[in-house]
Amino acid sequence: MSAAAEAHEHHGPPPIHYSSRINPAVLGIFLFIGSEIMLFGSFFTAYFFDRIVANPAQWPPLNEAGVPFERPWFLALINTLILVTSSFTIHWATVSCKKGNRAGLQAGMVLTFLLGLTFLLTQVIEYHRIGFNTNDTAFAATFFGLTGLHGCHVFIGLLILLVITIRAFRGHFSPSAHHGLEVGGIYWHFVDVMWIVVYVTVYVL
Amino acid sequence: MTSVTHDHHHAPASPSGLRKLTAPGWYRVLWTTPLVGFIGLGIVGLIRWAADWDPIWKSGPLATVGTVSFPMGLLIGLGGFDFWTYYASGKRTRPDSHDGHGATSWRDYFRINTDHKVIGIQYTVTTMLFFVISGFMALLFRAELAQSGDQYFNPQTFNVLVTEHAILMILLVIIPAFAGLGNIVIPLMIGAADMAFPKLNALSYWLLPIAGVTFIAGMFAPGGGPSAGWTCYAPLCAHQPMGNIFFNMAVQWGGASSIMTALNFLVTIITMRAPGMTFWRMPLLVWANFSTSLLVVLATPFIAGSQFFVLFDRVMHTNFFEAAGGGYVLGYQHIFWFYSHPAVYIMLLPGFGIISEVIAVMSRKPIFGYRLMALSLLAILVLGFSVWAHHMYVAGMAGWLRVPMMASTLLIAVPTGIKIFSWIATMWNGKINFNTPMLWATGFIATFVIGGLSGVWLGAVSIDIPVSSTYFIVAHIHYVLFGGSVFTIFTGIYYWYPKVTGRMYNEKLGKLHFWMTFIGFNATFFPMHYLGTQGMPRRVADYAPRFQELNAFASIASYLLGASTALFLFNMIWSWTKGEVVGSNPWRAMTLEWQVSSPPPTFNFDEVPQIVGGPYEFGVPGARHAILGSAQAEPVATGGH
To answer: Which stretches are transmembrane (chain A) (predicted)?
Structure first.
């Protein structure tokens, strides 16, 4: 950090004294994830109110044709497996980076990015063919609310993965300096774990 | 741009010609704002055209996306994302460059600046600007309320003014004013050169004026401004004129700003403390901001969620809170108050920290019960999450929920009482110096006790039910947020004014400001307790003639408050250039920010200080708080730079 002390007539700040062993960026991303969990929490709370407290006769409720709304749980299960796999590939990329294996890092990142992209595109197609819209009862509101919020996080996560992938191909990251990779990886793991909760809540229960 | 040499402390050499349009700054803003803004609107049209929705250009979605895309264009133009763009694309960045540091002219306050002291001033000045704007709105509707009957505003306009006054005071004045004061002093107090994430810090400031301008733009939106009150209850809020979309989105900008700053404070306090600065040696202001930031990080997403839901209910026709579509109406209030009650503590805890600093220093005594003062902050933090439904006793929620909410609400009075009694015990037998900051601090205790006690009354279900939605509530929240939070903000501004500017404010004007505000404040709001118990409803432009006299009295007193604010602004602006030059430590305080020059050097400390004791050991023989490097070994209370 203090390596940037430019040799000039004017001195910079004194070297930073760190009072904690945890890296500021890593602590920052954990706090950010805490905040994100609360944001998802507010969506789950709305879901809880609409499903339990408002006490509808059945869940999912009946649509206009008189049959319950269909939730494509099997397609979403396959999508879940895709996203979970991507957690393993980014872990592989991180481990490769720590071992100095650049090919592993690059391959892991490309795979992670493609898996994430597949997940998001599948979700877009799922939205398109799902047969109900946002204005169809509170069920649809919570369905699109939770999956949509998660989809936004996947989108942001993909941007971060893209950045990391580009940097991996530009020769950034080394066994000793890979905080950018680590922080992005923590975020991506969070997106994956959150999806499992969303999936179980929205599609299964 | 990356090739600019490290000519720090001065703005990067001003670019000329066409470079002016590409270098970060207001010239670039001129074209990036409309470009990104209209791209956003275009995408909306494109999606609606592709999906075959009619009409292609619909005001709701356009306003929603426009309130994101135009501000994003502004931020891109200002250079808020430059570093991350270079970093992301793998271009060479300047690690820890300091050219964004410090301010040499007023222009430096109008750009992305990474210096925590500059950002603190940006924050504080912005909040004072909005204090004047939203205070002026209050004076306008007090004019309407001076007489019963309709005089100047129709009920719709009246409600818009009330809504905007409340939300601006909360999100654009009180919360960011503490962020501003915290920005200036926290890194100094813990012996750091800057915040942990200076670039994030710069960005989070610039989200604030965006939020403020969006709120005000909402007043002039076609169709009318937001008039559902600052609580924006669903489903009323989802059926408001279009200005309400601006309101929802501005809350998101303000909330994002506040989360980013809180995150920065937390990481800074945890990882950047000077050697020897253990948690039990931190000044109480740092403790207060630590607890507040935890609250902000954990609670603010809930207001973001609540505003998203009402926005979706309106723009995407969802049924989160629409009973007809199976939604649960009260869900909004639960989610909203789950943030907005902790928000009360977000608006008070940093003020408690300021008061602790000032009372210990001006009484020349160690703070009474230091550890309990810190722990009571954490107790308020935890309890603050368990009381939200006391705002909903009459909303129609489950009846059994009232009792636990009442119990936890009354319980909060315990840690708060610990703080009040500790301040009084600190002053006990102290050598009290009743200068302006101390007057404000003691005035705060007096008014806040009134507000706190009426809060305990309101926590009791049996008292709350008859006075719900009356002026008793208005009186209570103003005693807590004006007599509480705003008084502490004034305390902090007067206390750190000599540190920030190097000059002393005018003491006579400061005292006059205090007495005018103290008298004007009590005269305005105390009668409202009585009006409330007599049944005068809040949020109405007209009222029964029997409330006439006290309302006229309150309106006249509110103009005294307006005059006192003018006096305050004059004092601040005049003293900035004409005030008496004072040394680095006019209050003879022990905390670190007073051990460096006034204003502090660009990087605060030449060497990392060594902390050897507590921050308030006044009168303890031989006690020291910190040992500073030789370059700064400047005896206390001699001249600064």
So the answer is: 25-49, 73-93, 105-125, 137-164, 185-204
Residue B152: CB atoms within 10 Å? 13
B596 touching chain A per CB within 8 A: no
Tens digit of pLDDT for each residue in B161-208? 999 999 999 999 999 999 999 999 999 999 998 899 999 999 999 999
Distance CA B233, CA B330 (A): 9
Q: Which of B581, B606, B627 is the last residue of a domain?
A: B581
ipTM > 0.95, yes or no: no
Cβ-based neighbours of A52, under 8 Å, separated by 6 or more = none
What is the Cα Rg of chain B in Å? 25
List chain B residues with CB under 8 Å of A142: 320
pLDDT digits 0-9 by tens, B574-613: 999 999 999 899 999 999 999 999 899 888 888 889 999 9
Partner-chain contact A36 B608, CB within 8 Å: no
Q: Which residues of A touch B238 (CB under 8 A)?
A: none
Nearest to A31 among B266, B331, B335 (CB): B266
The per-residue pLDDT for range B433-476, each reduced to its tens digit, is 999 999 999 999 999 999 999 999 999 999 999 999 999 999 99
Which of A182, A24, A187, A5 minimizes the C-alpha distance to A97?
A182
Distance (Å) from the alpha carbon of B586 to chain A's nearest alpha carbon: 26
Asked whether residue B187 falls in the same domain as residue B324, the answer is: yes
For chain B positions 64-93, those within 8 Å of chain A (CB to CB) are 87-90
Neighbours of B469 (CB within 10 A): 13
Cα gap B423→B441, rounded to integer Å = 10
Residues B218, B274: one domain?
Answer: yes
- H or E segment and range at residue B503: strand B503-504
What is the CB-side half-sphere exposure of residue A68 using CA atoms within 13 A?
9
Domain containing B30 equals 19-88
Compare all CA atoms of chain B with the CA of A181 and give the residue at the minimum distance: B88
Q: Which residues of B517-527 are buried (b: 16+ CB within 10 A; e: fewer)?
A: bbebbbbbbbb
Is the pLDDT at B268 greater than 80? The verdict is: yes
Contact A15 B608 (CB under 8 A): yes
CATH number of the structural domain A40-204: 1.20.120.80
Indicate which of B267, B321, B333 best probes the interface with A, i.e. most A CBs within 10 Å of its own CB: B267
Residues in A closer than 8 angstroms to B9, CB to CB, are: 10
Q: Which site among A20, A21, A32, A38 would you substitute to test the B interface, given the most B Cβ atoms closer than 10 Å to its Cβ? A: A38
CATH number at residue B453: 1.20.210.10
Find the CB nearest B263 among A31, A45, A61.
A31
Q: Please answer whether residues B409 and B387 qualify as being in contact, where contact means their C-beta atoms are separated by less than 8 angstroms.
A: yes
C-alpha separations of A150 from A35, A157, A165, B61, B510 in Å: 14, 10, 22, 21, 52
Q: Which residue of A has its CA nearest to B93?
A: A4
CA dihedral angle for residue B247, residue B250, residue B256, residue B258, rounded to 10 degrees: -90
Residue found under tokens 């103003």: B478
CA distances from B170 to B129, B379, B491, B542 (A): 14, 23, 18, 25
| Residue B454, CB-side half-sphere exposure with 13 Å CA sphere | 27
C-alpha separations of B455 from B422, B480, B486 in Å:
20, 9, 17
> B599 lies in a domain?
no
The 3-state DSSP class for residue B639 equals coil
Q: How far is A41 from chain B (nearest CA, A)?
A: 8
B330 and B447, same domain (yes or no): yes
Decide if pLDDT at A7 tops 60: no
Closest C-alpha among B619, B620, B623, B608 to residue B193: B608
**In angstroms, rounded to a whole number, what is the distance separating the alpha carbons of residues B223 and A197?**
41
Of the candidates B95, B306, B313, the beta carbon closest to that of A42 is on B306
